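> example.struct
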């Protein structure tokens, strides 16, 4: 007769109980945790998001018409001065135009210039870089010569010369900067394409009979998007600074269009007596450029965290 077997629980024997296997967190939660772990990216995205929101809402939140002039209210100081007024929180300029309203509408100008310039420069530079990196040989030699020639040209001097010949305007500044700031896109995409053209997925697409345009657009280009996004943020900040430089020198956006560089230029005659006419647009411009650079640096860390030195 068999004796009954007794089961002893882990609690009695002192053996550890088996741990319960928790399901892994969803992909979106892991991605959000990585994004929030990039403090520079979070701060830059927050600042840039507020600037974009203010620019888009400018027609509704601006307290005054940014073009309306009232010389009886010229050079009213901001609200923190003794002679400040809540009617003009950031004061007025030399023509009596509300400074806060012009700052809000000037953000629209800067963002449009930065975004459209990055798109134009990205299209030119990416096309040249992908063709040079994929085909190599004589195509690479010719495009590399074009890139070297472009790098030998000082951007500011060429922009000043062309703007003085053609005439300054918003459209001229966008086209001019787009034709001058494509070199970084070309260098990055050429190097990345040279590394990817011999990859297994490219060889598999060729074996299946895919055409060259299909391989470049559907197989190669999506793998370059992370690098292109980082370069685009840097070039946006570069374009905004160059536009402010041209506008400050009178060869960029023309008055009465609100532009932060133009606001600095219009206030330079009063910088020793009313310094806020230069400090306010200068600080806002620096904050926007810093936010864009923080976003670009954060995207670089997020897409290639092990590639940092």
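> example.seq
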């Amino acid at each position: 007769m068999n004796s009954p077997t007794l089961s002893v629980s882990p609690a009695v024997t002192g053996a550890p109980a088996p741990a319960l296997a928790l399901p892994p967190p969803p992909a979106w939660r892991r991605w959000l945790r990585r994004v929030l772990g990039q403090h520079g990216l979070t701060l830059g995205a927050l600042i840039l998001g507020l600037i974009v929101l203010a620019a888009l809402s400018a027609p509704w939140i601006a307290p005054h018409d940014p073009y309306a002039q009232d010389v009886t209210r010229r050079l009213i100081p901001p609200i923190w001065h003794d002679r400040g007024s809540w009617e003009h929180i950031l004061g007025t300029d030399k023509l009596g135009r509300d400074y806060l309203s012009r700052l809000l509408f000037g953000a629209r100008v800067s963002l449009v210039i930065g975004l459209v310039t990055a798109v134009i420069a990205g299209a030119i530079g990416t096309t040249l870089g992908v063709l040079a990196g994929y085909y190599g040989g004589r195509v690479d030699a010719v495009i590399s010569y074009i890139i070297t020639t472009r790098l030998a040209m000082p951007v500011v001097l060429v922009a000043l010369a062309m703007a003085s010949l053609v005439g300054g305007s918003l459209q001229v500044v966008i086209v001019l900067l787009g034709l001058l700031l494509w070199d970084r896109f070309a260098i990055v995409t050429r190097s990345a394409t040279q590394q990817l053209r011999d990859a297994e997925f490219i060889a598999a697409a060729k074996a299946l009979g895919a055409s060259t345009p299909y391989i470049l657009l559907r197989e190669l280009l999506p793998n370059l998007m992370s690098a292109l996004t980082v370069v685009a943020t840097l070039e946006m900040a570069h374009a905004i600074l160059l536009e402010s430089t041209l506008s400050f020198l009178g060869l960029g956006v023309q008055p009465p269009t609100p532009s932060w560089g133009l606001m600095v230029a219009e206030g330079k005659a009063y910088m020793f007596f009313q310094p806020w006419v230069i400090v306010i647009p200068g600080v806002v411009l620096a904050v926007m450029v810093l936010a864009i650079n923080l976003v670009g640096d954060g995207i670089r860390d997020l897409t290639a965290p092990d590639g940092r030195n």
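> remarks
The mean pLDDT is 84.
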